[in-house]
Write the structure tokens for this entry.
Amino acid sequence: MKNYKKIILVALVTIFTFQTSSAQTKSKAKKLSDDARMEWWRDSKFGMFIHWGAYSIIGGERGTKIAGGGAEWAMDKLDYTIEDYEKFPEMFNPVLFDADAWVSMAKNAGMKYIVITSKHHEGFGLWDSKVSDYDVMDTSPFKRDIIKELSIACKKQGIKFCFYYSIVDWHHPQAQGNLYPNYNISQHDDPSVVNPEFPEYYENYMKPQVGELLKNYGDIGVVWFDGDWISDYTTEMGKDLYKYIRDIQPNTIVNNRVDKGRTGMDGMDNKPGEFAGDFGTPEQEIPDTGIDSDWEACMTMNGSWGYKPSDNKWKSNEDLIQKLVDIVSKGGNFLLNIGPDGFGRFPSESIRRLNAMGEWTKKNGEAIYGASASPFEKPKWGRYTKKDNVLYAHVFNWPKDGLLKLHKSIKVKKATLLTAPKTKLSTIATSREVLVDVPMLAPDTTVSVIKIELAN
Ligand code: FHN
């Protein structure tokens, strides 16, 4: 009997130890230098943003009304009361969700990381939160931890898993919940429109939720905050949060919206002073020139982050590929969005674009991944990227006369088409430019890449 008790005790201790060490891991990873920590992200260049939540059921429509802009703002734009809106999380049951399929679509497109909205402004969480019942496990019939499934699928397929978290919370009574619905974006910067209880939401809800996401789902590549613009949120909170995250996972990268360094909705920090955050976040825009710090442009494929079937303004494949090249030539990363529907499906228009980008990146990835910004101003015909002693000319407008004009200071050792390395292209240096003799027809109808090995 004594032995029997001992066996049970040992078994219980073992189970408990295993559970706490596997589920509640505080990373034991060695703290890397900032450059080493940022390396994978700087080299990756291309990631997938996923906006998914209860708003994905709504699709931006209510009766005859269609929400202007992003459909993930349905709660606000379509004037739902909190009580009415709660019905959507209560029916969120995306039975077609397949984490492995999502991750392989990102991977095939050439994306190296995925950032999913763990909680958007609506306040509904896609993971099993112990801090709240307003999540997929407690409120929804789905009862599958989406963050867990996606983080496992990412790990399996070698894609970095990252999460977005909204500071804004229209559902929580200590955040915007008690001001809602008479609270709109124009008031977000107004210091008189704050919830005096917001510090309690920050300390007892938001911070612990971010902690759960960092402790229970393995290595987190990036923590991507949003909603920093509300005046309830302070720079002291931002700095505290950044430290809290790095204490749990020392090598995680955090976007600049963790703090208050940007003016309004500007992408880059531009206020005087020191602010936490590792990279800037231009949204729906690409800066005109390179920027001397880390940045990532996030963008939608149509005009909405969340699923919105009425929005048919899809960017073309060519436009998206050229945007990727433009961003890389200016030293940035491209975070391209998908808004899956309420069943868990990617819109077919998005899948087509992912496939086209995959075809291009498979052939031309050498000129993208790990490449640095162009050392030259952008040429009329396209963009340059650079890697060690190699310059890549990304040609958007193929020269009609078969002569590509390179910057005059370029000293060419060898020029080839990236996709046909055996075809050597001849070059002639004149006093005004270097001419490359290229085939009359563009090898790629979107962007053709010429690889130029530089003479020392
Ligand atoms: O309001 C959000 C919006 O819905 C979306 O999530 C984007 C993505 O960067 N961020 C906010 C606006 O800046």
Observations:
- The pocket of FHN is lined by residues 70, 72-73, 226, 265, 283, 298, 305 (CB under 6 Å).
- Residues 94 and 343 are 4 Å apart (CA to CA).
- The domain at 382-454 is CATH 2.60.40.1180 (Immunoglobulin-like).
